[in-house]
């Protein structure tokens, strides 16, 4: 049976902006990303990237996007250097062997060039996945829970790289379950639940807008946080 | 430094995309040496067990199994069956479940290029298997064909590889689960082998022999034998050719029509 995963979710991302797409499990975050990535064709609505209609010109739009999926999806037989050369080529970037090693050196993985993806640590996997997503210097990076399962050092390193991408003129749309992280790094937050847009604004704006909401007051221990606002808006029931 | 002479904002050239995919798929297949060797094992075992020393003696004498041309054709067919049907369908199902296709599809690679690259590499592996089998078969069985026959054998090998790849495509088109594809693929493989071996022998009666003769394995064996004896070409050989083309069109059609890139 067909089910509506996302309905009426609309937002824009400015150049150089980091936007956090937040929502409980099953809210429609990954579905929203899947539509932007071109994996799912929406029954209605539109996606425009850099002025290009993503539904009419998917390849043109995909060449402007960098995508880090929740699961890696790299061929298990290939080593890191081979995977990097594959995706560089697919994104239209010619890489020599030396370029490949340079790029891996840039994320501290030159020594691991001949290792397979599954044989490196979780932090190294995330750094490598981000390198693949940004190998062509994309206009928009889509990151699905990029820091999930990372230790603080790896998380910090990842944010440094995401920030560097932003400084280079790229925009970022990410999903995360870490409200602290979203509050700290995102310029703007989009909260969705049950496939619908609940609210949007900067973390400061959202907290200011909802700070007198009785639900937020009940949850807050002292100064309200983004997490208090998030739970107040989406409810405290468990989601699977 | 990375050479960005191709502007990252432009849609990447299809030539570079296809070259990159082909390079990766070739590396994947070369890393699967065990699979490649296993694909060769069955046809080579057939050729070794039925070499000149054993062929003319005992129960084989006077039957198709006493004919070197038939044995080489059977070995060629089984080689193509192993590499094209089993190897292809299991790899596609596994990569679909592991999200390999999903990752490629969020990149600017057309889906036809992703699949064409896979098919080209599988074709190359199947043809390489066929060349090894024909060389080993010719040596062990003391058979020598004319240059024209080798060209025709090559063309039939291409058709046979395409037919079994089509059956493999139909399998992954109709079945989503990797485990089920694996199980069904193995059963299909065994059934097709037994149809070829037992069916062609006539041991199971005329009805089974007819089914075996017109099965994908039987039709391909008939065709391989026919192209080495063109002077003796019959309507039955034409029927085998049409059957192989028919299987290719029908199964590839089913596989393409119902194939889903997403495992869910």
Plain-language structure description:
The complex is a heterodimer of chains A (240) and B (264). The radius of gyration of chain A is 19 Å and the shape is globular. In chain A, strand 5 (140-144), helix 6 (152-167) and strand 6 (171-175) form a beta-alpha-beta unit. Chain A contains ten helices and eight strands. With 240 residues, chain A is α/β, with parallel strands linked by helices. In chain A, helix 3 crosses helix 4 (97-106) and helix 5 packs parallel to helix 6 (152-167). Chain A has a six-stranded mixed sheet with strand order 4-5-6-1-7-8, with helices on both faces. In chain A, strands 2-3 form a two-stranded antiparallel ribbon. With 264 residues, chain B is an all-alpha fold. Chain B contains eleven helices and no strands. In chain B, helix 7 (147-174) runs antiparallel to helix 10 and helix 8 crosses helix 9 (206-214). The longest helix of chain B has 31 residues, at 111-141. The radius of gyration of chain B is 20 Å and the shape is globular. The chains are: A alpha/beta (240), B mainly alpha (264).
Entry summary:
The complex is a heterodimer of chains A (about 240) and B (about 260). Chain A has about 240 residues and is α/β, with parallel strands linked by helices. Helices cover about 40% and strands about 15% of the residues of chain A.
Structural class designation of chain B: mainly alpha
The level of helicity of chain B is over 70%
Ends apart, CA distance between termini of chain A? 20 Å
- The CATH H-level superfamily of chain A is P-loop containing nucleotide triphosphate hydrolases
Report the C-alpha radius of gyration of chain A, rounded: 19 Å
- pLDDT < 50 stretches of chain B: 1-8
CATH top level label of chain A = Alpha Beta
SSE succession of chain B: HHHHHHHHHHH
Anisotropy-based shape of chain B: globular
The poorly predicted ranges of chain A are none
